[in-house]
Specification:
- The chain is mostly helical.
- Helix 2 packs across helix 3 and helix 3 crosses helix 4.
- The longest helix has 19 residues.
- It has one domain.
- The protein starts with 8 loop residues before the first helix and ends in a 12-residue tail after the last helix.
- 51% of the residues lie in helices and 0% in strands.
Length: 132
């Protein structure tokens, strides 16, 4: 793996073209959340923070619901993110270009079918229009 990236994050994302820059900012925020969830108060003590594909996907789900509520799935779909493997595609694009690291045990497959988007982003409370 490269010591430092040859291309900027923006160059990598724009050349790839599958997902917009905003989606990568969201990925970064989800990663911070996953690290906080995994390491808690120890996060600052630990040199390298590793989270699994499933941990990252679950943190991204929580982050999306917190930010956008019932619109989370719609926002992600506009960014061409329709399933958890899309999060993996984003991560591995960054790994390939030296912007993220992985362990020998990590795999793109760790992101496949972590959850179903329709179920994971279904509004928790159904709106009952009958009483209005």
């Amino acid at each position: 793996m490269r010591e430092s990236p040859e291309k900027s994050l923006e160059e990598v994302v724009l050349e790839d073209g599958r997902y917009p820059l905003d989606a990568f900012a969201f990925l970064h925020d989800g990663l911070k959340r996953a690290v906080a969830d995994a390491y808690g108060d120890r996060a600052e003590e630990v040199q390298e923070h590793h989270v699994s594909g499933a941990q990252l996907c679950n943190a991204l789900r929580a982050e999306g619901i917190q930010r956008w509520g019932a619109l989370a799935r719609h926002v992600l779909t506009r960014w061409n993110i329709r399933q958890t493997i899309d999060f993996g595609n984003m991560v591995y694009l960054l790994v390939e270009h030296g912007h993220m690291k992985k362990t020998d045990q990590d795999s793109l497959e760790d992101f496949r079918d972590v959850y179903d988007f329709e179920e994971a982003f279904r509004p928790a409370v159904a709106f009952d229009a009958g009483g209005v």
